[in-house]
Structures are given as C-alpha cells and as structure tokens.
TrEMBL record:
First and last residue of the signal peptide: 1-18
Thioredoxin domain segment(s): 23-165
Pfam families given in the database record: Thioredoxin_8 (PF13905)
CDD domains reported for this sequence: TlpA_like_family
Transmembrane segments: none
Protein name (Swiss-Prot/TrEMBL): Thioredoxin-like domain-containing protein
Entry keyword Nucleus: no
C-alpha cells in the first residue's frame, strides 16, 4: 500500500510540473503591438497573417543577450538547412536604435520586430517567457508546432522542422 501511495504522489508531482505545450497563441500575444525596422507599428497577429501558409521559426532575442549572440551561428545553420522557412526575430532590446545596431552588428537575417516592454511585458508573459533566446515553430496552418526550446540546435527543434518540410 505504501508503494502505491508513493507512486501516486510521484505521478501527480511529475504531471503537475510538466509544462503544457501550447498550440495557439493567447489573444494578448496576438494583439501585442510591435514595431518593424521601418518604425511602423504592427501586431503579432498581423505578422503571423503576413506569413500565413509558411513554416515560421520565431527567435525571441536581444542584442545585449550573450546566449542569444552565441546561438546566432546555429540559427544561420538552420536558415541554410531550412531555406523555405520564414525566420522571425522578435527583439527585447531596450531601445529602437540599440536594436537596429544589434541587427547589423550580428548580421541577423530575417524579419525583425521589436517588443517595447521586455521579457516581463505583455508579450513575454503571454508566451510564458522565462529565458532568451527562445525558439518557437509555427506550422503552415498557423498552429504552434513547437512552443519552447532555448537552443537553436535542440533535437526537438530540428525534428519539428524536419517534420514540417
């Protein structure tokens, strides 16, 4: 009987701590106002709509983030391996100018958008952001195929992209 109780407690704690893999974005994320490199406002929903029918790799990053910068060479490899995917870079930089300098300095290729309220802001909270870089994949139907990895060479990321080819 003791073993059953211990096993039950273990199972409950394991599933209680497991992170839910989201398959769609919360309305707060979709309605979040960002800006493009042209300084024009755009919602996250509009960004996704622009890329409808495509596999989208989202990289949440910042030019001040050393882990983000270290991971850029791996992102470049992904871009070479998956040329048909759209790469969206959502920055948490503190200022518009710092963000533009970071894009150029680190030669980040793809679509770029800036979130103005940081990791703890509306967008960050709506995607449960706890660390950057953060990678997500959206399939061609607009469904989130991969919700959370923090390494650009993570096996889950590679397998997800391979499955969406």
């Amino acid at each position: 009987m003791k073993k059953i109780i211990v096993l039950g407690a273990f199972v409950m704690s394991f599933f209680g701590c497991a992170q839910i893999e989201e398959t769609s974005f919360k309305s707060e994320a979709l309605q979040n106002q960002m800006v493009g490199t042209d300084h024009e406002p755009i919602t996250f929903a509009e960004i996704l709509k622009k890329n409808e029918g495509k596999t989208i790799v989202i990289d949440v990053w910042a030019s001040w983030c050393s882990d983000c910068i270290k991971g850029m060479s791996k992102v470049n490899e992904l871009q070479e391996k998956y040329p048909d995917a759209t790469f969206l870079f959502i920055s948490l930089d503190k200022t518009y100018d710092a963000w533009l300098v970071g894009i150029e300095k680190h030669e980040v290729k793809g679509e770029h958008y800036l979130v103005s309220d940081g990791m703890k802001g509306v967008f960050g909270k709506s995607i449960n952001l706890t660390w950057i870089p953060r990678y997500m994949v959206v399939d061609k139907t607009g469904k989130i195929a991969l919700y959370n990895v923090t390494e650009a060479d993570d096996d889950k990321l590679i397998k997800t992209l391979d499955s969406l080819k």
